[in-house]
Amino acid sequence: MPVKVFYTSVSGSTEIKKRQQKILDVLSSKKVEFEAIDISQDSKIKDEMREMANDAMALPPQICNGNEHCGNYEAFLEAVENEQLEAFLKLKKE
What we know:
The chain is α+β, with helices and mostly antiparallel strands. The chain has a single domain (3-88), classed as Glutaredoxin (3-Layer(aba) Sandwich), CATH 3.40.30.10. The protein has helices at 14-29, 43-53, 73-81, 85-88, and strands at 3-7, 34-38, 62-65, 68-72. A 4-stranded mixed sheet has the order 2-1-3-4, with helices on both faces. The radius of gyration is 12 Å and the shape is globular. Belongs to the SH3BGR family.
């Protein structure tokens, strides 16, 4: 299961919660296997997410394939709208 979605279960931001849910809903509806990883459970996980995103201030949700960062919510949404989700998630073998 290569796709990882980093999210937080303890956000006061409705916007972050909505974005996280949208990603999970889209991946489920497209039958993409993924692992949802809650960064609020361990600060090491948050650090790992930010390291993969190459952004010390990165906020969830962030999406990775294995240890390769795919992008954030905006990039995900753009890929869905342009019907390039498989490429965005790095699922297509070039």
